[in-house]
Amino acid sequence: xxxxxxxxxxxxxxxxxxxxxxxxxxxxxxxxxxxxxxxxxxxxxxxxxxxxxxxxxxxxxxxxxxxxxxxxxxxxxxxxxxxxxxxxxxxxxxxxxxxxxxxxxxxxxxxxxxxxxxxxxxxxxxxxxxxxxxxxxxxxxxxxxxxxxxxxxxxxxxxxxxxxxxxxxxxxxxxxxxxxxxxxxxxxxxxxxxxxxxxxxxxxxxxxxxxxxxxxxxxxxxxxxxxxxxxxxxxxxxxxxxxxxxxxxxxxxxxxxxxxxxxxxxxxxxxxxxxxxxxxxxxxxxxxxxxxxxxxxxxxxxxxxxxxxxxxxxxxxxxxxxxxxxxxxxxxxxxxxxxxxxxxxxxxxxxxxxxxxxxxx
Length: 361
Ligand SMILES: Cc1ncc(COP(=O)(O)O)c(C=O)c1O
Hints:
Layout: H1 13-24, H2 33-46, E1 50-54, H3 59-66, E2 75-79, H4 84-92, E3 96-100, H5 111-117, E4 122-128, H6 137-147, E5 150-154, E6 162-163, E7 166-167, E8 174-178, E9 191-195, H7 198-208, H8 231-241, H9 244-262, E10 282-285, H10 289-298, E11 304-305, H11 324-330, E12 333-336, H12 344-359
Parallel strand pairs: 2-3, 2-4, 4-5, 5-8
Antiparallel strand pairs: 1-9, 6-7, 8-9, 10-12, 11-12
The structure holds pyridoxal-5'-phosphate (PLP).
């Protein structure tokens, strides 16, 4: 039996044909018409007015923050349980990340702790819809509105997830999506900023394109960089996003399978999803996840420890306050195989190995 990866991309023959046909038609590779088309399709799916492609989902967050002109000492609140990129993008754009605890109900930013962290220096809150969960999104939205703080959504895990009828990424000033390999659709690397604010959209267009609004001229209106995408990646992105609904359905089925088979094991904690949310990775929480990981490895099943708590990272330690809930879950979480390519026989095998691990205890 071959090894089961924790995650692998689903690239279909239709995707491959889309890339081939782009190359056959002598596309110039660089960001052009196809990227505009991808942005348009994306805006329609998310329900926002504007989408702007970027090379990845780190620079998307940095672009949004750069548009806020952060000054030294300006603070941006981020959850303690997220990928390090969320906090690093704050530093890249000149701000200071302030770590906030998460809610024990859904693993997303905790509104009660957020209120404690807000002060005069707070310029923005980055809300991470971790693993596609909405969490307390509308409560966070209200707090940001009352305190006049910019709400930015890091929706890297959230393509295909809705809160009620609204797609994630529509609750604040702007949001960020990622298309890296493990995501529900991938372009290898890639990211999208979404917003319905025209002024912000124009600023971000300039930030990503050397300070100009359009290519082919040398009129620079502000400082800007090269955060451009490529049309060859857009060929793949357009092909993949057309199957988003199908992909979300498969992710839900995979989660439901694991949940049905393993929910009776009282040593495992699941955080179930609502019907409108798309699980990105299958995350379970237990004591000593490293031991289960090693056991799965022996059976040719790869898994991955969830993100470590950011306040415990060496380079962030000066923020070293104890954040109980995130420190608890970030050291107990394990991501099980979650690829769209998984077959029922794989899921049967994985869950039987996990059951045998707990039966032998
Ligand atoms: C929550 C979160 N934010 C940001 C990123 C960064 O995205 P990228 O890898 O596209 O730079 C990731 C990547 O996985 C992520 O999980």
